[in-house]
Amino acid sequence: MSTRDFSLRAIRALVFEILACLVIAGCTVGPDFVAPTTSAPAQVFERTEAAQAPSKAVEAAFNSDWWSLFNDPALNALEAQLADASLDVAAASARLRQSRAGQRIAGAAQLPTLDGAASYERERGSPNGILSLLGVPSLGPQSQSASGKSPLGVAPIPGSKGSPAYNLYQTGFDASWELDIWGGARRGVEAASALSDASYEDRNAVLLSVRAELARDYIELRDTQSLLDIAKQNLQIARDAANLTQIRQRDGVTTDLDVANASAQAALIESLIPTLEAQCEVKINAIGVLLGKEPGALAQTLAVPHDVPELPGEVPIGFPSELAQRRPDIRRAEARLHAATASIGVAKADFYPRISLNGSAGFQSLQLSSLASWASGQFALGPSITLPIFEGGRLKGTLQLREAQQQEAAIVFQRTVLEAWREVDDALVAYDAEQLRRDKLKEVVALNQRALAVAQQRYKAGAVDYLDVLNVQKQLLKGQSDLEQSQATAAANLITLCKALGGGWQSTYADNTRRIGEGTGASAQMRTAYDASATAKAD
After folding, report:
1. For 18-48, what is each residue's pLDDT tens digit?
2. Within 13 Å of residue 144, how many CA atoms lie on the same side as its CB?
3. Are 201 and 328 in contact (CB under 8 A)?
4. How many domains does the chain have?
5. pTM for the full model?
């Protein structure tokens, strides 16, 4: 049998081995992940029917751009800039790209590896080593140098003295492919993909939180500006009253006590103004940081006072079956549970034999001129198998660790779901209650304004002391401040409700495309939109 025929038979045998391994390669050890089904309890959404406040939560299609419910152009403009400008979102996007890279690294385990190499060596065998078995003496002159005619670098005639040096040129390729018979590599890719999904939901959660934080800072800014306006109005009233008491004191109608009380009230109200002005600047800077801007960059844009935005007549909150699909924290917990489940399969696959197909092909020659000739060719092909026999308990310990991690992930998922329902229920209660409180405070302010007008008239007529006027004015100032803060709190509660409902992250770089897939992971549309935008930014 010729060498060529033997090589062909060896190659055919190797091909048959590969085919046989691929036939049984469909086995995947470990549990398959089944996405848990969740739906908000009906009791949570029943609160919408019992609500008594003017702005009611209703079961209707949820608007992911929930900040538009305030109908405030300035807030809409700020939210439109947020996704591209926020450094927190940019950092979360960088973490997402890291997880995508990890997913690609995990996928490489399913593919063969191919390495190329080339080398040159100047060698001389030791006469005192293995060459001594060939009868090469350790002493004596080296009468020649190795060429292509002197194999292995030894003298051509056994028994001659010395071992000449020789050149060795090599080049070729090495290939190896570990067959994923038990599905360990596939489970690894599955776990990495689930972790990538979890990172994607992390980014969504960051975007949702930043949107809510921006809206709250904006509401607090408008609230502080309104309180500042109330303080200035009351300051003017207090100054007018102080001037009146001075006139009456000069006319002998009243005493210095009324003048001192009126002046003290005016000074007290005036002392509130610097603090409120400083709070306005602090809130403007806080909004600027969220948008990645330096302090004072938004001063001209936001310094003009505006009232706290009015609440909408109705707040669509979606439907119970949709809530779990909108909340990034639930989807993130589900993805981590998926990753923990797949990791069990990776740990179980380590108990089974590993089969690899190895091969190398290249050229070797003692002369560079003949390196590329077919006569210098060499190859090696064949499978290898590795069977774990004793690992000191490492494999069992790893499996137990992965199973315990899966149990923890399942518990965290359940806790996350329960926490989500609680947040929605609490937000609905708080939103309704604060509106009822606001309406009562409106009545309080109206009564205080009427009482102040009556007290001022009676004071001018000399029917009451100025202390009565002072008390009524203090009550009016407190009532106006409480009313303004209640309006801001009601708006903040609406923001909390929308955040609890999971709205806001759907507005990504490209568009407002929603996830349409079930289970873990984002839809192909959202991934494509994000990847295209990230690529454009990198370019």
Report:
1. 555 554 545 788 899 998 888 777 777 777 7
2. 13
3. yes
4. 1
5. 0.79
